[in-house]
Each structure stands twice: as C-alpha cells, then as structure tokens.
Amino acid sequence: MGGTVTLITMGPKEADDTLRMGLAKGADTAIRLDDPQFTECDGIVTAYILASAIKELNYDLILTGCFASDDGYSQVGPALAEMLDIPHAAMVTKVETEDGKSLISRELEGGLLEVLDIQLPAVLTIQTGINEPRYASIMGIAKASKKEIALKGSGDLGLKEDEIGKKGSKTYIEELTIPIQEKMAELIPGAPEEAADKLSAILKERGLV
Q1: Residue 39: inside a domain, yes or no?
Q2: What is the DSSP track for 23-49?
Q3: Cβ partners under 8 Å of residue 50, min gap 6
Q4: Does residue 122 form part of some domain?
Q5: How far apart are CA 50 and CA 81, in angstroms?
Q6: Residue 139: partners with Cβ closer than 8 Å, 6 or more residues away
Q7: Which residues does 26 contact at the CB level (< 8 Å), separation at least 6?
Q8: Which of 52, 55, 134, 205 is deepest in the core (most CB within 10 A)?
Q9: Has residue 161 got a pLDDT over 80?
Q10: Where is the Electron transfer flavoprotein alpha/beta-subunit N-terminal domain (predicted)?
C-alpha cells in the first residue's frame, strides 16, 4: 500500500513510551495531545479533540481500538468518523486494501461475520488479535528514542474551553459499584451420565421440569 504511518494519542507524558514502541516497530511519526483542559473528557469530546488534530493531516485509513480498557464505551471510533464525515466499520477482524477501497471482515452479534467493501478514507475500529505485531529491533528502539514526539494542546488545535474537558462533555460517571452477587453457580462433579442424572433430579426438585 505504501505511504506513511502516524501514531496519535491523547494522554499524559507516560503515553510517550507506547508511542516510542510504535515508532520502533515501524511507524514514521507520533503525535501526543495533552492539555490540562483535556481531563474528564467523555468519549464524544475525546473524538472531537482527536478529529481536530487529524484534520490537519493527510490520511487514507484511520485505525482505532474497539473500546478503551477502562470504560468500554466503544464511542470514540464511530464518533471520530462522524466528525470527519467519512465511512467507518466497527469490530474489524481482517483488512485488505486495494485501489482506494478496503475489503474488511467484522464481527457481529451471535458469532456472525460480515464482509464489506468500504471506500477510503475511512475509520476502522480494530478487534484484538487481528494480527501478530512485529518485534521491535534493537536498531528500531535506538532510532525511536531519538525521534521527536509532537506535542499539541488546546491552543494548537484552536479548541475553546467550553468545548472540551468536563465542560464540553455531555456524559460523566457519577459512581462505579461492584454488582451484588445474588446467585451462586453450582458445579456438578462426576461422569457426564452421572452429572446429567444429578442435574435432572435437581431440576425436578425445584419444579423446573
């Protein structure tokens, strides 16, 4: 396919380690978006900040994760595509690109798989396990340690205070709690036939069959 790869993330200085690992594995440039006003952003505002930075770049294909490991909202990828006014596909497990189009496979509910043609430029949210990441070579790590990571804040992107952070977010977390466990699983030991007889007896005893 050719071209270049640009890594972009919104996060604190600690995110530089991840960006440098990506550079060591072959990415060309990296951008980190960081600003005190970027805290407490919901998924939509996060997408808005990313879109503001990406609009300044030339791009054909934008790859994101399916969801964040902390909240799992799955909002950023689709919202990013909407803000850039380009197509998107979610939960992608395979990508083949040729002649300005991508043939992609993506997961649906119930274990189904959907195959789509999608016109580029586009946003794809990538499912875990789509490929095996290459190893970073010693030389790649050394070169990555010397590369500059571009840092951009709200002023660089022309963002207003009431558009970002908690002020710009439409949703926020009020409370996180662990669900109350009301039922316990019961394991039935023994050979399959014996376990089946025990299960049948339990169901009859509880009036379920």
Answers
A1: yes
A2: HHTT--EEEEE--GGGTT--HHHHHHH
A3: 8, 10, 33, 76, 80
A4: yes
A5: 11
A6: none
A7: 5, 134, 140
A8: 52
A9: yes
A10: 1-161
CA distance 41 to 165: 5
Q: Tokens 């395979």 correspond to what residue? A: 94
Structural domain including 113 reads 6-168
Give the contacts of 88 (CB within 8 A, at least 6 positions apart): 77, 78, 80, 81, 82, 122, 123, 124, 125
Is the pLDDT at 87 greater than 90? The verdict is: yes
What per-residue confidence (pLDDT) applies to 171? 85
DSSP helix/strand/coil, 52: helix
To the question of pTM greater than 0.85 for the whole model, the response is no
Give the integer Cα–Cα distance in Å for 188 and 209: 18
132, part of any domain: yes
- Residue 164 contacts residue 37 (beta carbons within 8 Å): yes
Is 70 a member of any domain? yes
117 vs 133, residue with greater confidence: 117
How many domains is the chain built from?
A: 1
CATH assignment of the domain containing 115: 3.40.50.620
Burial class (CB in 10 A: 0-12, 13-18, 19+), 92: buried
